[in-house]
Each structure stands twice: as structure tokens, then as C-alpha cells.
Amino acid sequence: MSHLQAALSQTWPPFVLVTALLAIGQVAGADGLFDAAASRLVRLPGTPIALLLGCFTLVLLVTALLNLDTSAVFLTPVLIAVARRRELNPAPFLYGAIFMANASSLFLPGSNLTNLLVLDGATGRSFFRTMLAPALIAPAVTAGLLIVFHRRLLSAGAGSHPTEDLAPIHVGAGLAGTCAAAVLMLALANPALPVLGVALLLLLWRFFGGSSLRGSLAALGLPALAGLFVLSVGLGFAVRAGVLPGDMLQGASAPATAAGAALASIAINNLPAAVLLSSHGTAQAQALLLGLNIGPNLAVTGSLAVLLWWRAAVGAGESPSALEYSRQGLLLAPLAIIAALLVSSG
Question: How far is it, in rounded angstroms, from Cα 67 to Cα 60?
């Protein structure tokens, strides 16, 4: 197999899978599933901290079952809307949406493109068992630190408790597609094409139901995905051809591997970094994933999900700050990575 073929073979399945999951998330959003979740979150009893934790739980579930890009696109406006409807400062919800998505992306292969790039061929069940402990601890630490970081804003007022009717949960194509994708990712070592098949069926269902395919595709951020795909293939080819070193972290300890992966993520984005650092394999796969998945919480350049989050936040009327993002992330990311390393199996 040529170097280019090898690079394409490693790279295309993850990108196809994430594109399919974004499409399924778009259908779920159009079915009102995220709005239904928001209407229930708004009515949660208790303090703003309890509300924020409820929002974080939703982010974790959507990130794990679909993926963090879907979570960033569709849940960011939901969390902002929840904060506004409860008359709370939206900042903890705005930044929490993306920090929790990155930290919660270690559960299943499809939860993050980097999982598929680094652990190529792992089944959903084996990946889940291997990564369960760090997958649980990383979002738990991140959520706790976010509450501490935003404690003044969260304690500034109790907020209102709206009493409007709950939005109905529509049991339709979006919910069915989400469940089907989750089952396929757990059952198959290479679920990209089957999940793509599910996504295409859902899009056709919407098209024949009168929806615009152009509008559905526009929400997927395909230009950004295509650019990262080309960059990732190019890096994979360059490493295999000996143009770039692909063994920079070979022989490094787990902490050094995680730190190197985190820094590479914010330097060139975590998807190209995953290809660059895993083309020749790695003995510290867990640590590499911790750096690639949680490391993007350090800076807005770290992952595609952050770019999608930024666009969704601006679309919802907020003005995210790269400086504020890093001010929080410089605390959140290292501590979450350290905690996850402590419970990792190897």
C-alpha cells in the first residue's frame, strides 16, 4: 500500500463517521429533541448550580452518543437559551458547553474523531471498557472546576422558574437515528459506512417530507471538515514518507505524551495532530487521547468543535472571547488531564 493510500485509509472513516453523526444530530434538532430537553432543564428545581449540572449532563450524553461536534453545534444555543429563560448570566453555560463537550469525548469511538484516528479498529465495546475510568473522571473534574470558577455568577441570583408547558418529545426519525447510530458504534469496529447509511436515509426522509437538503447540509460545516480532512491526509502522507517525524512521542512517558498531544492540538488542531502522532502507532494510546481530547480546552485553536461552538454562540447572540476561553482552560485542562491519567489503565 502506498503512503497516500495508507494515509487515506486511516483518515477517511473517522471523517465520514463524524459527518454522518452531525447529519443525524441535525435531524434530531429539527425534530425538536434538543428543544424538548431545554424545556425540561429550564423547569429543574433547585439552584443555578443544579441547573448547570443538568445542562452538563445533557452535554455529556449527546457527546458520548453522537459526538462532540454535534454537541457543540446543537447544544450551545440550547444552554444559552436555558440560562436566559432562567434570567441567569449565560457565561457559565456558554463556556461550559464546549469545555464539557471536549472533556466528555472519551466514551465511544465516535465521540471524537481523534478516538478513531488513534485507536483504529477498536470496537465500541472494547473502547468503552478501556476508556471508561478516564472518560468519567475528566468531565467530573471539569464540571466541578467550572462551578468553582463561576461560583460568583452562579450565586448572584436564584433566577426565575418558568412554568410554561413542556415541549413534547417527538418520537421520530431523529430519535431513531440517534439510537441506531449508538448501537452501530458499539457493535462494529468500522461503523462509518453503516452510520452514513442511517444519516442518508434520515436526510432523504426529511427531503421527501418537504425539508431542504441544502439547509441541512449547510449546518454541517462541511468546508471546515473538508479542510481538516485534506490537512490530515497530507500530514499522514508526509509522516509515512519520512518528510515529517511521526515518532516524536515514541518512548515518552504517559504524562509527557498527554502534554505533547495537548500542545500539538492547540498548535495545529487536534485532528491533524492525531494523524501526525499516531501514524506509526503509539505505546501510550490512552495518554495520547487524553491530550488530544481534553487539551483543546487550553485554546480556541484546539479542535473543530471549538470552531463550531464559536459559530453557534455568535449565532445565538453571544460574544465568546478567546482570552476568556484560555483563562478558564488553563485551569481546567491540565487538572482534568492529570486526574484522568491517575485512573488510566495504561
Answer: 9
d(CA 190, CA 121): 7
Query: Whose grid coordinates read 444559552?
Result: 80
pLDDT tens digit string along 72-104? 988 898 899 899 888 899 999 999 999 999 999
Report the C-alpha dihedral over residues 342, 276, 13, 181, rounded to 10 degrees. 30
Q: Is residue 242 part of a domain?
A: no
Separation between Cα atoms, residue 11 and residue 272, nearest integer Å: 10
Residue 197 lies in domain: 3-219+304-330
Q: Is the pTM of this model over 0.85?
A: no
Closest CA to 95 of 135, 178, 32, 154: 154
E strands, the chain, in order: none
Compute the C-alpha angle 305/65/192, nearest 5°.
80
What is the percent of the chain where pLDDT is above 70?
86
The verdict on residue 247 lying in a domain is no
From 12, 18, 14, select the one nearest 221 (Cα to Cα): 18
Q: 277 by DSSP, 3-state: which?
A: helix
Q: What's the CA gap between 97 and 114, in Å, rounded?
A: 19
